[in-house]
Amino acid sequence: MAPEVRSLPPLGLIVALALILPTLPAATHAQQTKPSAEKENSPEGKARLLQELDRQIEERRRELAREGEDLAALKRALEAAKVELLQERQRMEELKAQVEADLARRSKLDDARLGQISKVYQAMKPKEAAQALEKMDDDLAVAILDRLPGRTVGKLFDVMDKSRVRQLTRRLQEGRGPPGRGEK
Question: Whole-structure pTM over 0.70, yes or no?
Answer without folding.
Answer: no
